[in-house]
Write a structure and sequence with these properties.
The chain has 1499 residues and is α/β, with parallel strands linked by helices. It contains 41 helices and 59 strands. Helix 36 (1216-1226) links the parallel strand 45 and strand 46 (1236-1238).
């Protein structure tokens, strides 16, 4: 035994209270100081422990008589279990917890661990009332008087209260763009907080301020491979120190003279010689014996069935079954007699029985997998009972339905009337046990797949032999079987071995146990049973019900076989059971735990006392040691220990060894935990139809450290984890399918369940209904705990319980739980005989189909392998940058459109400097030429304007401004019109009068509260002295409803232009210089910032000329425009372009698409338009609304083959998935796949790129997203992991020059480098027009110069990141084409962990994660990433999204989500261009105006 003793005892560095008090004052002060440093984040946990250990070292008492250097070497001493009755005779309170997992010791440990945590509360998730699935109203979180949420990371002792009395923020902010965002958005210190969401987030932030660990400086080489931080093994972790173990042999199988040659020979012998001997007694749900099957009856009924199966079932005169065919046995747990007859009937007919559970519904947990097993076994026939067949779901034809994933089966009822008596001369062939398959037992793997384990005739016989010898079975003994008789120990003891030795089995059905948990004990008493086969659960249940029974005795029992004795927590059930029933005649030595698995069958069993074996043993093991697969004996006082009992000796005739779990099956050392392997004639033979897995499991060759095999025999892996202890006793500490490897340490699911149950769960969750499993996220396993919540549990209570469970698991197992979810009662997938179906639960969790009612995610504490945060390197100087690019052969990233000056064309409009002159000239030259057609929702023309009509209307407006409005040249006028001719006419009317027009979107009559303040703000900020509008809108502006939203008395003069008088001759205003202001263009950016830009007359004409040249526009052309006409390129195309170029514009107001989605495409088809413009929101409406109706559109003769270019007007990265879907869907209507392209413009320049009609097709590149975060462009192949497809944003317009500049040094960058896009062109806007007028702040947006290189050109900064790339294509001038790729707005990027993220990339991942996510938006709030998702499903699905969103953002972006907010569809604000208004959303969230369905705070 010496070789097994070399395990060091874990040293305890915790000073006992007595010692703590006796420490010198200065030491106590230093300890307090250390605690403070740790809590404030000035020292790491490791540093803290090191310093603390150093301080305490002199005061820890040394173990007497042992040299300090040897103290670590304390040797293992397994405490031999004392005779168990002596200590505890008091009956314990038993109704507190599930006894299977119960250990008072463990419970005390958990409570001690929890006591170490100060009563810190965690922030409770907010939930809309309708989502409180089953809690009472009182349980809801009150909205405002919510106590401050607690500190979640334990880093700060004091939570800060956000101040609550701020006025709400206006929905639109007018802020100079140069300001940084903290000032714009009033973050941490100035949040308008007025409710629970805000104060909670504030608190969460305060607790997350300290980084987990200081990040290391990191230098990135260009072809970097970003690696996830690999956990380095802890140098101090315990290592195995014992010698290599030797294989352990069981006693030899005894030679018995009259041992039958096969199990069937045994059945024949007893059937003929002992026909009246009872074989099996079945009970009903009241516990009354229903039927006793004798050996004679079993023999004759099995023969009848065998004959019928072989001879009376046929298809097309061919027998249906041939020897060796597989047959499914579908029998309920309450009918053991029919099952036994069917099982032996199949064996007699040389058919292979495959016992399975009764499928009750099509959706039974795991039923689909059983179907796959039946299919792979080629099963065509299922045997069942009459009652069971009637209960199965039927199709309309009356046949049993085909269950999901099942093969088509013929169902045969084995009741008496369906089977035939064989003729006198027919006898079944009883062979000696040959190597044929006897039966197939099913097993569900950890992943949820079902495998069939084949057992041969010799193995079945040998197993019966070994069990008979080990358990000392004798003829005519009575055995009580509480287990499922279809598989596992219930089948081995209650159906096979019992027939071998002619025993009498009393079968207790599960349904009876549910009604009367004491039934098995009563039957042991009534039948004086010698043996009972049970699980820990049955012992626990009987403890709960034992009080009312006084007159039962268990003195007849010589063996109580505990078949799940391998579950480490069975010891507590055994102890508690003995404690109570010792008084009823139960002897301590009768309890015989055993270890078995489907592959290895019975591996070890504690022998009955009469067989002269050593006394049972008990081991108290350090959990921390076990997590490193090392055995370290500990003391019961320690918190994190596991107490296990032995499962006896190895089975007769078996050879057992323990091998390493992963990699080559090396033998373990004596103090190491590994997988138990067994070599004997009585194990399973193979997984049916899976030769590869069979070889790994059933034909393992364990090897010694030297590499040589330990024996010539193959071994079977049993999937049991354990070790061999003193006296050759086998100890089991877990199972492979419950093993979770987190950060290189192994944890057992059962152990975690036990810890969760020790946290007084009774009020909140159901005891036996907890599932623990691991999911793989970001290259490591993460632990998930799912439990069923009681209907009467309060939200607050359940949440407290959840937070305590997290703390307990963290303290006892030193492992973080990634997700803890509570689901409503009775909704977890069930296994057939009670218990939770773990793999199905895991599957549902990953699919987002569990529908939890409470979720707590803790990614911050358990995801420790994130890549290190990036630290910016000091910038390279400008000179070395240029030299570097030259050396690398890189050209500077600069490109330009065609030169306007050299383009000779017959452009008459060039002669005029001002747009009003162009209109006058057209009205004289081509008075009747139609310029505009406006369509209504029906597709009919609602209004038109020719050159002359437009001129006349403009003159009337100008007259009204001068005479009625008394306006002077240079006054600003707001035009508040719906899309139409009025808007265009009043625009030119303003120019005629010398006023400066400002186009404003009219307020929405149904939504004045949010739309009217924006109108008011633009009117005020633009300093408009007059508003021109229609009579209807004029009434609206001054209505009572409007007064609720704004101060209606403060509107400037409002004129309506509906009925203007005819004019006398008007003197048109001539501006003194083309540099004068022509109009103001106001728009709200996605950041919620209202910015107006100034457009001069020269810029306006230059813009029109550029568009004309790029799109080849001339008077005979028609173009269709489905855009909003209020700002940017949409305004220019709608109001300016037609007048300049003379082409006809078909105007389709996007609002009309709400009532007729196909309006725009019908117009394009009807007018055979070659060029059309739309916005992303229009394209999305068509894709979603018409995707399934292309056939109907074709029947309406809609044909899009006329379209040469369809351009999406946008100020963002091209939405390639949307444009591709659009092209794909409408390809059927003739749309050319090359037609769709995008444009790019921004505030400083409305039109930088536009595909136009000539020039190469837009190109697409694929970038590495990880490089992009580090602000580098790295091309990858299509489809490679982490790739992002990016489409060119159209061709650069004539006269436009673009350069890519470094955002910080303002130096030019090389080709394919990411930087800010700068633009220089005659149609750049001339500056911002803001209420502040602090032009200095924005001067550099409109006139900035490069810091080196070409330092003369004046550029405007677009505020967008992008890059230029020279392609292989040639453009119209024969030069190689330079493509501009826009990556995203610089203002919108999120700086997280030192990297730059674009919100759209995170949002794309999130939307992909669950089918119910309709839309998503992300923003940061100081250092927290907030993800808002719109839920398109039912509210029950809201909480399914939280783990999936967290997973996908971790996997794809290496970011931890701080808050997940689930809202209704339509809550995420979107502007007219179809862009998300993330900052509005952020304001709404912080002011608690979103009415979220659920808000989850990830800890």
């Amino acid at each position: 035994m010496a070789e097994r003793n070399s395990t060091g005892l874990l040293m305890m560095l915790e000073p006992s209270p007595a010692i703590a008090m006796s420490l010198p004052v200065e030491v106590r002060e230093k300890l307090a100081e250390l605690e403070l440093e740790l809590s404030e984040g000035d020292i790491t946990q490791k540093g803290y422990e090191k310093k603390r250990a150093k301080l305490l070292a002199p005061y820890i008492p040394q173990i007497k008589g042992v040299e300090p250097s040897l103290q670590k070497e304390n040797r293992i001493q397994m405490s031999q279990a004392a005779p168990l009755g002596s200590k505890h005779n008091k009956s314990r309170a038993t109704n507190t917890r599930d006894e299977r997992f119960r250990s008072d010791l463990h419970t005390e440990a958990v409570h001690a661990a929890l006591a170490k945590y100060k009563e810190r509360k965690m922030p409770m998730p907010s939930k809309r009332r309708s989502v409180l699935v089953q809690s009472s109203v009182e349980a809801c979180t009150p909205p405002d008087n919510h106590s401050a949420p607690p500190d979640v990371t334990g880093l700060l002792e004091h939570s800060l209260h956000a101040d609550r009395d701020r006025p709400p923020v206006a929905s639109v902010k007018v802020v100079p763009r140069g300001y940084n965002h903290s000032s714009v958005m009033e973050t941490a210190d100035g949040v308008p907080v007025n409710s629970r969401v805000s104060s909670k987030i504030q608190q969460l932030l305060n607790t997350l301020k300290r980084p987990k660990r200081p990040s290391l400086r990191e230098f990135f080489i260009d072809d970097f491979e970003e690696l996830v931080d690999v956990q380095q093994p802890d140098p101090n972790q315990p290592k195995a120190e014992g010698n290599q173990m030797s294989p352990l042999a069981g006693e030899p199988l005894g030679v018995v003279t009259n041992w039958p040659p096969s199990l069937l020979a045994s059945l024949q012998r007893w059937g003929i010689t002992q026909p009246r001997s009872p074989c099996l007694t079945a009970l009903d749900n009241a516990g009354k014996p229903v039927y006793t099957l004798t050996y004679g009856k079993l023999w004759t009924r099995s023969q009848k069935l065998a004959f019928t199966l072989l001879n009376k079932l046929s298809t097309r005169n061919e027998p249906l079954l041939l020897p060796g065919d597989r047959v499914a046995l579908v029998f309920p747990n309450s009918d053991p007699v029919m099952f036994m007859v069917a099982f032996y009937g199949c064996l007699l007919a040389e058919l292979i029985p495959v016992p399975i559970e009764v499928p009750l519904t099509r959706k039974d947990a795991g039923s689909q997998q059983i179907g796959f097993l039946l299919g792979s076994c080629g099963v065509t026939l299922a045997l069942t009972t009459d009652a069971c067949q009637k209960g199965l779901p039927k199709a309309q034809t009356g046949e049993v339905v085909t269950f999901k994933g099942w093969p088509r089966l013929l169902w045969f009822v084995t009741d008496g009337k369906h089977v035939v008596k064989p003729p006198k001369d027919w006898h079944p062939t009883i062979r000696e046990a040959n190597n044929e398959i006897a039966y197939i037992e099913y097993k569900t793997s950890k992943e949820g797949s079902t495998m069939g384990i084949t057992v041969s005739h010799p193995a079945m016989l040998a197993h019966c032999h070994a069990l008979t010898q080990a358990c000392g079975y004798t003829e005519a003994e009575t055995i009580c079987n509480v287990l499922d008789f279809k598989r596992d120990a219930g089948l081995w003891h209650g159906v096979l071995t019992s027939v071998m030795t002619r025993m009498h089995v009393i079968s207790i059905p599960y349904s009876l146990m549910k009604v009367n948990p004491l039934s098995w004990i009563q039957k042991v008493h009534t039948y004086k049973a010698r043996v009972a086969v049970v699980k820990s659960r049955d012992m626990h249940w009987s403890l709960l019900a034992q009080r009312d029974q006084r007159d039962i005795s268990l003195s007849s029992l010589r063996m109580l076989i505990v078949t799940d004795g391998a579950n480490p927590w069975s010891i507590s059930s055994c102890d508690a059971f003995l404690n109570v029933f010792q008084a009823r005649g139960l002897r301590p030595e009768v309890i015989c735990p055993c270890a078995s698995s489907a592959e290895g069958m019975t591996v070890a069993i504690r022998r009955p006392p009469e067989s002269g074996v050593p006394p049972p043993g008990k081991a108290v093991l350090s959990m921390s040691g076990l997590s490193h697969s090392v055995i370290r004996v500990d003391t019961e006082e320690k918190l994190s220990v596991l107490t296990v009992q032995d499962v006896g000796q190895v089975m007769p005739g078996a050879l057992v060894c323990v091998v390493r779990v992963e990699g080559t099956p090396y033998l373990c050392q004596t103090d190491e935990v590994g997988e138990i392997c067994v070599s004997s004639g009585s194990t399973g033979v193979a997984y049916y139809g899976l030769p590869g897995m069979t070889k790994n499991t059933f034909q393992t060759i364990p090897v010694r450290a030297s590499g040589g095999p330990i024996s010539g025999r193959p071994f079977t892996r049993t999937s049991l984890l354990g070790f061999v202890g003193p006296d050759n006793l086998v100890f089991i500490v877990g199972r492979m399918d419950g093993l979770m490897t987190v950060c290189g340490r192994r944890h057992n699911a059962d152990d975690v369940v036990a810890t969760a149950l020790a946290v007084e769960p009774m009020k909140f969750v159901y005891r036996g209904r907890i599932a623990v499993f691991s999911v793989s996220v970001l290259h490591d396993e993460r632990i998930v705990v799912v439990a069923e919540q009681r209907p009467d549990a309060s939200e607050e209570g359940s949440f407290q319980w959840m937070s305590r469970v997290l703390q307990a698991i963290d303290s006892i197992h030193q492992v973080g739980v990634y997700c803890l979810a509570l689901v409503p009662a009775n909704t977890m997938p069930k296994a057939p005989l009670g218990g939770i179906h773990i793999s199905e639960t895991k599957q549902k969790f990953l699919e987002g189909a569990l529908h939890p009612c409470n979720v707590l995610m803790c990614p911050h504490s358990c995801v420790t392998n994130l890549p290190k945060p990036r630290q910016k390197q000091p910038e390279v100087g400008p000179a070395s940058m240029i030299v570097g690019n030259l050396v690398a052969g890189k050209r500077i990233a600069q490109a330009c459109g065609r030169d306007v000056a050299q383009l000779e064309d017959n452009d008459q409009a060039r002669k005029f400097l001002y747009m009003q002159d162009v209109l006058q000239w057209r009205a004289q030259a081509t008075p009747d030429h139609p310029l505009f057609l406006v369509l209504n929702a029906k597709g009919t023309v609602s209004s038109t304007a020719s050159c002359l009509q437009l001129q006349k209307r403009a003159e009337r407006v100008a007259m009204a401004l001068i005479e009625k409005g008394r306006l002077n040249p240079g006054d600003h006028v707001a035009l508040v019109y719906p899309p139409g001719i009025d808007l265009i006419a009043t625009f030119y009317g303003c120019l005629y009068a010398g006023c400066v027009p400002v186009t404003v979107r009219p307020p929405h009559p149904q939504n004045l509260a949010t739309t009217l303040p924006t109108v008011k703000m633009i009117v005020e900020v633009s300093k408009s002295v007059c508003i021109l509008t229609t009579q209807a809108i004029m009434k609206l502006l001054k209505s009572k409803e409007a007064a609720a939203a704004v101060d209606v008395k403060s509107w400037p003069m409002v004129l309506d232009t509906d009925d203007l008088p005819r004019t006398k001759r008007l003197q048109i205003y001539k501006p003194p210089t083309p540099e004068m202001l022509a109009y103001l263009d106001f728009s709200v950016s996605t950041m919620g910032i209202l910015a107006g830009v100034k457009m001069s007359h020269a810029a306006t004409s230059a813009l029109c000329r550029s568009i004309k040249l790029q799109c080849e526009l001339y008077p005979s052309r028609q173009i269709a425009i489905c855009l909003d006409p209020y700002c940017g390129l949409g305004f220019a195309l709608w109001c300016l372009s037609s007048v300049y170029s003379g082409h006809q514009s078909i105007l389709v107001p996007p609002l009309e698409l709400d009532s007729n989605v196909s309006l725009w495409l019908s117009a394009v088809s009807q007018y055979k338009v070659r060029i059309t413009f739309c916005s992303y929101s229009v394209m999305e409406m068509c894709t979603k609304g018409l995707g399934t109706q292309t056939e109907a559109l074709r029947l309406r003769n809609i044909n899009l083959s006329c379209v040469r270019t369809c351009m999406v007007v946008a100020e963002e990265r091209p939405r390639i998935t949307l444009t591709q879907s659009f092209s794909k869907i409408f390809k059927d209507l003739g749309l050319s796949p090359r037609a769709v392209s995008t444009t790019f413009g921004c505030r400083v320049n409305m039109a930088v790129c536009l595909q136009g009609t000539s020039g190469p097709d837009p190109t697409t590149v694929y970038l590495d997203m990880r490089a992009l975060r580090h602000e580098r462009v790295r091309m990858v192949e299509r489809g490679s992991p982490h790739s992002l497809s990016l489409m060119e944003s159209g061709k650069i317009l004539p006269g436009v020059k673009v350069v890519i500049a470094n955002t910080e040094t303002k130096g030019p960058l090389g080709d394919s480098h990411l930087g800010e896009v700068w633009v220089s062109s005659p149609h750049n806007a001339t500056g911002y027009y803001t209420v502040y007028g602090e032009d200095a702040l924005h001067a550099d947006h409109f006139n900035t110069k490069l810091s080196f290189g070409d330092t003369q050109t004046v550029w405007a900064r677009t505020g967008y990141l992008g890059f230029l790339r020279r392609t292989e294509l040639t453009d119209a001038s024969g030069e190689r084409h330079d493509a501009l790729y826009v990556v995203g707005s610089l203002d919108e990027t999120l700086e997280l962990r030192g990297m730059r993220y674009h919100p759209i990339d995170i949002e794309t991942s999130v939307i992909r994660s669950h089918k119910c996510i309709a839309e998503c938006a992300v923003f940061t709030w100081t250092n927290l990433l907030v993800v808002v998702v719109e839920l398109s499903g039912s509210e029950q699905e809201a909480l399914d999204l939280v783990p999936l969103v967290t997973n996908v953002v971790l996997e794809d972006h290496y970011l931890i989500v701080g808050v997940v907010v689930v809202v209704d569809p339509g809550v995420i604000p979107i502007n007219s261009r179809g862009e998300k208004q993330r900052m509005h959303l952020r304001d709404g969230f912080l002011a608690d105006q979103l009415d979220p369905i659920y808000v989850a705070y990830n800890m």
